[in-house]
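TEACHING EXERCISE
Course module: macromolecular assemblies
Task: Read the component lines below, then compare them to the predicted structure of the full complex.
Student: A.B.
Group: 4
Components provided:
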Amino acid sequence: MAAPTIDQDIASPMPGRATRGKAYGWLVWPLLVVLVVLVVVPMLAMFYASVRTVPPGYPDADWTVQGLVDVYTTGPYLRTVLGTLLLGVAVSALATAAGGLFAWVLTRTDIRFRGFFEMAILAPLFLSPFIGAVAWVTLAAPESGMLNVNLGRYLGLGDGFTLVNVMSLPGLVWVLMLYYIPYGYLFIGAAMRNMDASLEEASYLNGHGVVRTALRVTFPLVRPAMAAAFFFIAVLTTGIFTVPSVLTADTGFVPMAVRLYRAVNVYPYDYTVGAAIGTLLLFLTACGIYFYRRATTNAKRFVTISGRGFRPRLIKLGTWRPVLTAMFFGYFAAAVLLPYTALILVSLTPYAQTAIADMSLSITNFTNVASSPKVVEATVNTMILALGAPTICVIIGLLVAFIVQRSDSRLRGPIDYLAALPIAIPGVVLGLGMLWVYVRTPIYATMWILILAYVALYVPHAARLTSSGLMQIDASLEEASKINGARLARTMRRVTFPLTKPSMLAAWIMIFIFTGREVNAAIILYSPGSTILPVLTFDYIESGALQNAAVVGVLQTVILLAGVLVARFLLRVKLSSAV
Amino acid sequence: MRLMRRLALAATAMTTLALVGACGSAQPTVSDVAAQPGISDELVAAAQDEGEVVVYHTPGNEVTREWVQGFTEEYGIEVTTLRQGSNALMERFNQEARAGQNLADVIYKSDPADLVEAEEQGLLANYTTGNAEFFDDGSPGYFYPIYTIRYPLAYNSDLLSAEELELIETEGAEALTDPRFRGQIATTNVNVSNTIASFYYSMAERQQEQYGWDWVEGVAANEPTIYDSSSPMADRLVAGEFAIAFPFPDTFIAPMMEAGAPIRWFYAEETVAGSVYAAIANEAPHPNAARLFMEWATSPEAITEVSRLTQGEPTHSDAEDVRTLRDRPWYEPPGELWVDWYDDPEFLGDQEEFNARMADVFQYTS
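Instructor-supplied answer key:
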């Protein structure tokens, strides 16, 4: 999931200045059907499955509410809910605070290497949190992690020294925080950049210092952005399954998304309970999105952008510069350098070795695994998915944006809402719903079911970005085309598409990246011929082949980085504005 | 306008149906695979026409990949594999069968209890391999043993002191209740598979004099890490996360040991034993390729090769035993074997109550 900018709702209000044309019924109805099939039908299937004694399609099915009663009212599940909420609050609070601090330093101080640091903060957005968690296990498992083993040895503290333990609740919070800080930075940084600096200037003129101004003027003005970041990150944390499944084995804590996965994938199976957990998870994330949207709506009351030009005064850091510079380098090291160095090292070992002095490094295992038929097939499948899903998403997104902004159909509101709805649906929940809808159809066990799932998950981002682009185009340009006799298709091809190309490209690249790293839905829907790299990584972890998982993780990261580099240098897409 | 709207809706629905219908691979008509045993030119040609065989398996990905590569090299037929844990694999197989989505051609797994149940439900094909007479295990006509597995207790020799090593080597499993091993042990949730449950049942109920529930509770008192799967537990043992781990198939850790990992193991006085079996799915989408694969998998050459890769004892009486494990100075072969645990009425009858008591002793959280 990605972060919208603070000045846009997910479901954007219809702009008053656009001149509305016809209803375009021949386009509206098919689009509505597509969105209903993509989004609503799987959710209905999940609700249905939560009141049936066996999964859809099984014989001897009967009605039951026992699953819902167990999940919504009994102690073990309520404790899971409480634990999941506390996890969401902890990760959100820390990621928002850290992201806000980074945003303030980069927008309000004279820190050096500003461009590099912005890239460093955003880098984790383009990497997989799941791969990051795997890498942190190799770094910081309590007895065998590289940091613990090598520091213990070289500091003479003996075997069994544990500096950090990532296989713990604080470890889980730490890893999630690392990968969600960029969202906090994006929300709050955008608000700080758009703020009228004269308010802070007035504070300085009245004799207040940097800290007092920051605490009494700057941060209060970006409070809605902070609230939006908080709830957005909380929704992400609540719905993620892969990172907790890797890190919580020793803790006794099982977050809701992991409980859902286990209910349908680990003996003893209970599909009814799994579906019931899915409904509860959906309810929680929908609540989070509701509060997120209220926060973004409230942001309009805090608008300080005025007609005058404004430039904030850059605070001289002085002796604080090395400290804050170290903070940025530290974050980059923790989020990117350390884990990926560990991952590369492990991928070059024949079995799990973590003492650097004892490592038998060789390219053999890497090349054997990377060239194996299964990995090659998974790479091809990943590319099919990463190329196909964004293409379909962008087309649907553009059609949604067009209908919402250019048509006078009474259905443009429901279409807008449906296109935004998947933001609130965790990947594992959507995957489960889609499994039950399509298990008896020809698209089960094919790449198509994965493509459909990913299109459903990411159509909100395509709609948002293309809507932003379309909003900036004066409708008179399209009207001029129509007045001169061009039909809608020609007008879109010759006028609309070329003008919205930058936003379409940004949407395409962003969804390419998110598709390349998403695994929560795929882990439910994959089959022998449709395995993708993230699923293969998960499978290697489950089968105890961490070094092979590291090889696949490195390959997956290379693909994502290639996409980022093509976007940045070939297509000139500003990726920070895309997420 | 209303007519246009209705026409648009109908066109969309028809297009969607056509798209869905055209997508993916249609399930071929599957014929019964009962046929003359052995490899004929007709069978090879029919299998090559099908072009693919899909194997659902529980043994490790890399070992299985290397083994089935031999089939591809000999017949030019691609082998697509899917690995999951024992219960998850059978659940997927059953679910797909119920939904009419038969994807698996061959099931290749341990835990014969699942295969017995699948046979009773008519999910396995009745096919007698040309090598049937060379096996004395499995279910003739339904599933055949490929290599044997035993369930030892393993340890990372780099993490134990000389004193601890000596204790283990002299006392064996009884040593694991010693408080000095607190926090150094990992084990698996008995609900993961019937084989895991049978291991603990053997220790707690069948070997009451040597071990019994006192032993089980002694191990639990050492606060072991509980895993939901043997596979990551073995990897963490090799990495050095803990010093002792059990149970998992010896063939799982043997390849790691062969690669240089400091892993050793020993067996309890009675050891749960079994095999990894192969069976053809009754509604196999590539029935001829499945038969050819079964013929190849049960041949002495293929079994010799898989024995070499996994260090599991070969099951074919004409296969060569090329295991290097037997030459290791620390290796002691298992003594008494409990092989018919999956059919044992006492174990099966007590299993639910037994698993509940184990959950209570170990305080499973999942």
